Amino acid sequence: MAPMSFSEATDTRTFGLLSSRVSQTLNTIARNGTPPTREDKELLRGGVALLERFIQGSRIVEGEVKSGLVPGPDSLLGFNQALNSLAAIEELGKNEGFTQRFRTLRDELNSICVANVIQDTDKERIKAVSEFFTTLGDRFYEDLARKSLEDAAPGSPRTSEELTDGIAGIGLR
Questions:
Q1: 145: left (phi over 0), alpha (psi -120 to 50) or beta
Q2: Distance, CA of 114 to CA of 125 (rounded, Å)
Q3: What is the 3-state secondary structure (H, E, C) of the chain?
Q4: pTM value?
Q5: What percent of the chain is predicted at pLDDT more than 70?
Q6: Once rounded to an integer, what is the mean pLDDT over residues 122-139?
Q7: 38 exposed, middle or buried (CB, 10 Å; 0-12, 13-18, 19+)?
């Protein structure tokens, strides 16, 4: 595997932190049944921007992009983690293409941002979006940990199962 550049590592760390914070915020909103605060909305908009990035990447992969309008290669950074996260959750649009599933997540997150009241019926939807961001954050952090282990020692873990076993073996979980 090619070494992760400083920029990629920084973006991966940033995306992982953002994903985790979005998930925590959504869980708090669902648990308390209160609409998002101004600070929550700002954070959730960061999640919307990340989903927009994944929508651009999925449009490239699905061949939806017309020539001359191709998004930059940074649209694909984190895209693998996002696809793996979509595969790990089943609630949102499992019969849709990736681009549409990312759009569904984005639209759900946008609707949460503008909500003035959180109904009991909204809580399951919020939890489903939160689950995506939890899984996404985990994927980003796994990539960073795996890369650190690979850089530290030859023959280090190559799969998430080997990584989890390695982390458990050194007492981090």
A1: alpha
A2: 15
A3: CCCCCHHHHHHHHHHHHHHHHHHHHHHHHHHHCCCCCHHHHHHHHHHHHHHHHHHHHHHHHCCCCCCCCCCCHHHHCCHHHHHHHHHHCCCCCCCCCHHHHHHHHHHHHHHHHCCCCCCHHHHHHHHHHHHHHHHHHHHHHHHHHHHHHHHHCCCCCCCHHHHHHHHHHCCCC
A4: 0.71
A5: 60
A6: 91
A7: exposed
Task: Show me where the domains of the chain are located.
Answer: 6-140
> pLDDT at residue 96 above 70?
no
Helices 79-88, 120-152: axis angle to 10 degrees equals 130
Q: How many whole angstroms separate alpha carbon 152 and alpha carbon 121? A: 48
Instruction: Give the count of beta carbons closer than 10 Å to the beta carbon of residue 97.
Output: 14
**pLDDT value of position 99:** 82
Residue 89 and residue 138 in contact, taking contact as beta carbons nearer than 8 Å = no
Q: Minimal CA–CA distance to 12: which of 95, 63, 76, 71?
A: 76
Residue with tokens 């490239």: 60
Residue 96 Ramachandran class (φ > 0 left, ψ -120 to 50 alpha, else beta): beta
